Model the fold of this input.
Amino acid sequence: MAVSAEEAAFLNPNKLNGSQVLERLKAIGLSELDAGLVTDCVNVHKAVMWQNTDEVSDAQVAAARKFLDDNRLGVSVEVSPGRFGKFIWETKLVRYSVQKSAVSS
Done:
């Protein structure tokens, strides 16, 4: 899904760079691997799935979701328990409604 120039201007209003996103996700408590993969998804604006055994709590996932949404980074995350103690991660692309400014006459 391509992002239009208008939508791109609306994304990441705080102008967070990849290092800042990575550090914030790690501060929330995500593992280095998971934080890095989510950051990559933000940087390249792609949706992916992966699984691993790194522990993650519902509170950490909720905090990561809130951070991504509050900063309009264009990606959301879902984490589900898998088999054999693994967690299944999925990032999804998010579309935000772009406010059209009123045209003055």
